[in-house]
């Protein structure tokens, strides 16, 4: 799927609207990871009781099921680590891009996208007209969009004509 120029803008808006959710998800995933690590550390290898288990069945013995459980937990932890890393990278990029904005633009973004405020409320808080607030917010979103997707946006601007 090829993204168009305005799709990056919409994607950026979605990222801004969900930034708090992303941060909460990171906290939850980290807590889950810690829980899985604790489970992995606390699990003990059962002692095999030779001669008491029937042989020839398709069921796993205690040591085999323990090893299977360990591999499952290790795989889950690796997958969580990858998800945490990807989401943390995205959150860091968004926060870095927000850090490049001046105070008023940052406040506009926070009120509109993270605070989910209506334009009239923003007008009352900031003191700008609704029209000016919309324009400034749009410019700020484009600045964030450029910071997040600069390399892709530059490629999209290069038009290729076929003769």
Describe the protein in words:
This protein is mostly helical and 163 residues long. It has one domain. It has helices at residues 5-17, 19-42, 62-99, 103-114, 119-126, 130-157. Helix 1 (5-17) crosses helix 6 and helix 4 (103-114) packs across helix 6 (130-157). The two termini are 25 Å apart.
> Helix- and strand-based class?
mainly alpha
Largest sheet: none
Count of helices?
A: 6
Query: How much helix is in the residues?
Result: over 70%
Low-confidence stretches: none
Give the oligomeric state of the chains in this entry, treating copies of one chain as homo and distinct chains as hetero: single chain
Beta fraction of the residues?
under 5%
**Integer average pLDDT:** 84
CA-based shape: elongated
| String of helices and strands | HHHHHH
Gap from first CA to last CA: 25 Å
- Total of domains: 1
DSSP E strands, number: 0
Rg, Å, rounded: 25 Å
InterPro entries: RNA_pol_sigma_r3/r4-like (IPR013324)
Coiled coil: 70-97
Keywords: Coiled coil
Task: Summarize the SSE layout with pairings.
Blueprint: H1 5-17, H2 19-42, H3 62-99, H4 103-114, H5 119-126, H6 130-157
Helix pairs in contact: 1-6, 2-3, 3-6, 4-6
